[in-house]
Design brief:
Layout lengths: L2 E5 L2 E3 L5 E8 L8 E6 L6 E6 L6 E3 L7 E6 L4 E6 L8 E7 L2 E2 L3 E5 L2
Parallel strand pairs: 2-11
Antiparallel strand pairs: 1-3, 3-8, 4-5, 4-9, 5-6, 7-8, 9-10, 9-11
């Protein structure tokens, strides 16, 4: 079955960095787009970043452009999200997604 396992979340001070990783299995990873969504307290889930199958085409939410970078390693069935210059408003549970499938999420907290 499809499995998406996120890791790398944690607590960082504003201005700090984190790198999230998602290891996927149960489907042909290399031919599908992968996305990161997040859900902040009291907010609905929102798309943060998306990377297409070849790895050369990406989309970002306006709020994270210039700060976050999505990448993928098709040989390792892994998609990553490098998060720089973190802000308190980045605090959320971050989810790796494939079509309608969601991972368990990993908590990111940008706070002192």
């Amino acid at each position: 079955q499809v499995r998406l396992v996120e890791s790398g979340g944690g607590l960082v001070q504003p201005g700090g960095s984190l790198r999230l990783s998602c290891v996927a299995s149960g489907f042909t990873f290399s031919v599908y787009a992968m996305s990161w969504y997040r859900q902040a307290p009291g907010k609905e889930r929102e798309l943060v970043a998306r990377i297409f199958s070849g790895g050369g085409s990406t989309n970002y939410a306006d709020s994270v452009k210039g700060r976050f970078i999505i990448s993928r390693d098709n040989a390792r069935n892994t998609v990553s999200l490098q998060m720089n210059s973190l802000k308190p408003e980045d605090t959320a549970v971050y989810y790796c997604t494939f079509q309608s499938y969601w991972g368990q999420g990993t908590q990111v907290t940008g706070s002192s």
